[in-house]
Amino acid sequence: MVHYILFSAAAAAFAVCAFWHGLVLRRYEVLTDRLSGASIRAVHLSDLHSTAHGKKQQKLLSAVKEAEPDIIFLTGDIVDDRKERTPAFELFEGICALGVPVYYVTGNHETNICGLEAVKDEIRNFGVRILDGECENIVIKGVRLNICGISDPRSYDSEGGYDGWESAMKSAFADIKDSHDYNILLSHRPEKFGFYHELGFDAVFCGHAHGGQVRIPLILNGLFSPHQGLFPKYAGGIYSMDKLPRKTFECVSRGLSIFWNLPRVFNPPEVVVTVINKQ
């Protein structure tokens, strides 16, 4: 009987931990010799899917404020094509009120929105900078940053690839390798990390993978992700490539949405704060 009680208690504790969906403030630090001056605190949000309402929205905004960002990145699927847009618009309004630059790129769910350009205009009215194959140079705390972004591809070639999308990026970001600023890319898709590195970016922020849905700490970082399949390589966390011309790191957010039909296991929704420091 004692063993049964202990086993039941352990199983219950395991289930609580595995399916706990409280919001996490995830912190990373990366070092680079390409940064001069002060460190930069970037808050990264992705894959909200218009799901934050009421108290959840307030907790989300409180977590962003607690992180004390210098800049905020939104990497797609914040607005969902099949859900009410108000929660996403409330997020835009709340984070723009913090008075720091906010940059945004679309994900696959925004791409499917009918009348997307009108929705983008509404988003811009909050003060959000939407990037699509373009860059913006800014100076934060004396540090020169080149913030670039690319919209999610609208279609795929006959083999499900990204040929037209990649060609457009090569043209849009042809001068990145020669830039003396710290070059940051926002893109929804993490699986193209090698391509982003070849373009010459110093840092990349992505979403889309939802943390691989199911995680087992220290064993499995993700079970399945769209466009990566089983055991995705870039499910969530910090990744790096050290090949020439420069070192690149990629930060993949595990996202913010929770759906009853897609359980998250050991994979709570997260607000990511990445501190970029001079090496």
Element layout with pairings:
Blueprint: H1 2-18, E1 24-32, E2 40-45, H2 54-66, E3 71-75, H3 86-96, E4 102-105, H4 108-111, H5 116-125, E5 129-130, E6 134-140, E7 143-149, H6 163-172, E8 182-186, H7 193-199, E9 203-206, E10 224-225, E11 229-230, E12 237-241, E13 248-252, E14 270-278
Parallel strand pairs: 1-14, 2-3, 3-4, 4-5, 7-8, 8-9, 9-13
Antiparallel strand pairs: 2-14, 6-7, 10-11, 12-13
Helix pairs in contact: 2-3
Radius of gyration: 19 Å
Q: Can you tell me the overall shape?
A: globular
CATH class (first level) name: Alpha Beta
Provide the succession of SSEs: HEEHEHEHHEEEHEHEEEEEE
Q: Order of strands across the biggest sheet?
A: 1-14-2-3-4-5
Helix count, per DSSP?
7
CATH topology: Purple Acid Phosphatase, chain A, domain 2
Question: How many structural domains?
Answer: 1
Mean of all residue-level pLDDT scores? 89
**Low-confidence sequence ranges:** 6-14
Would you identify the CATH H-level superfamily?
Answer: Metallo-dependent phosphatases
- The CATH architecture designation is 4-Layer Sandwich
Fraction of residues in helix: 25-40%
Distance between the termini: 57 Å
Q: How many runs of DSSP E, i.e. beta strands? A: 14
Short description:
It is built from 7 helices and 14 strands.
What features would you describe in this structure?
The protein is 26% helix and 26% strand. With 279 residues, it is α/β, with parallel strands linked by helices. It has one domain (22-278): Metallo-dependent phosphatases (Purple Acid Phosphatase, chain A, domain 2, 4-Layer Sandwich). The strands form three sheets. The chain has a six-stranded mixed β-sheet, with helices on one face. The chain has a six-stranded mixed β-sheet with strand order 6-7-8-9-13-12, covered by helices on one side. Helix 2 links the parallel strand 2 and strand 3. The radius of gyration is 19 Å and the shape is globular. 39% of the residues are buried.
